[in-house]
Amino acid sequence: MKRRQLLAAGSATLALPVPAMDFAPRPAPAAIRASIDRIIDIAVGIRPFRAHGPRLQAQHLHGKTVVHHYGHGGSGWSLSWGSAQRALALVQASGVRPGERIAVIGCGAIGLTTARTAQQAGYRVRLYAKDRPPRVHSSAATGLWTPDSRLIAQAHATDAWVSGWEAMARDSFKVHQSYLGLPSGPVEWHDGYVVSDDGFDSALPGHAGEPDYPDLYDRIADLRPAGRALSPAEHPFRSPHVRRFTQLVFNIPAYQRLLLDDFARDGGELVQRELRSPRDFARLPERLIVNCTGDGARTLCADADMTPVRGQTARLIPQPEVDYALIYRAHNCVALPRRDGLLVAAMGEHDFGSSDLRPDRQQSEDAVRRLASLF
Ligand SMILES: Cc1cc2nc3c(=O)[nH]c(=O)nc-3n(C[C@H](O)[C@H](O)[C@H](O)COP(=O)(O)OP(=O)(O)OC[C@H]3O[C@@H](n4cnc5c(N)ncnc54)[C@H](O)[C@@H]3O)c2cc1C
User: Fold this and answer.
1) Is any atom of ligand 1 closer than 6 Å to the C-beta of 143?
2) How large is the average pLDDT for residues 345-362?
């Protein structure tokens, strides 16, 4: 049976049974004002899914060393720092020494964290990008810790790959924790609820053309508190089955802005430029280039292993009193308490294989109405 991955919390959110650990009684969560006239923005982005998982590989091309670093599917924000550390290892192995300037192509989650990681290792960095935030796909992301979301087809997830993924996820998690407690709140922890009409045992149906994905989350289940089922008296939702979990949330605009500011403060340069073919790598003055073009690599590098996976997020007027995430399992629909708005994400039936960037307002309105039905 095909498994559809939950947009947000990964399969482990639903894993049963789990021991109750840290959950003391707490006040009832504030109701979400789930009303379509509160939608203030709709963003569409592409997840750069690669059947064999992210490409992390050095290549000699037209007299340059190109470190390919793209294809992080629905996990790019989550895995960014750990992945950047592996890209840095390839930079260091190339013989280019700290102090020299390197080029990073791409200004999304992967390019920015790669640039910062290289700066921290002593490299001077120039970023080249066709677009910068908020006009990158990373800006449309939901902002949850989902290091196993649409990352690799199950058929290609060897034991060695899974071990490498676990180390990468743990390294990334550690760096994200260092961004807690900052005034702009780039990273925060929030409780969340996953609600289901029919329990948590049934597999969700797959979407057309979508591969099976490996279950990875159990490998890193220790990184957050275990969730637990709630009795009807313990939650306000109109749903028979509810579980509570605790989750890492990325406030994407604040995180991007902080990364850009830190990059500039450490002497980084940002140049707007589109590369149209691999020959354009040779036209850059730097002799080492890290290619963090995300879905752009599908055409730039003619990477046939890649499939675009469309995603859409809407924001409702911020509701600071709502401090929890809410996942409606059957509809794969998520609400997230971001600082820039109450974010509502939902999967469309035809997102896998689609690179259609046109907003579908109906899709977001349907998601908002589904959330409204829970209150
Ligand atoms: C709706 C949605 C929800 C998501 N939710 C989450 C989530 O909750 N948690 C999570 O971890 N991940 C999530 N993701 C996945 C995550 O956003 C991606 O994995 C991530 O954006 C990939 O980042 P990137 O830097 O590789 O790509 P991008 O953000 O696409 O950045 C690519 C950069 O390269 C540049 N570029 C591309 N081609 C060229 C070229 N030819 N020449 C020059 N520059 C070029 C672009 O202009 C851009 O600057 C979500 C994605 C979507 C779409």
Assistant:
1) yes
2) 91
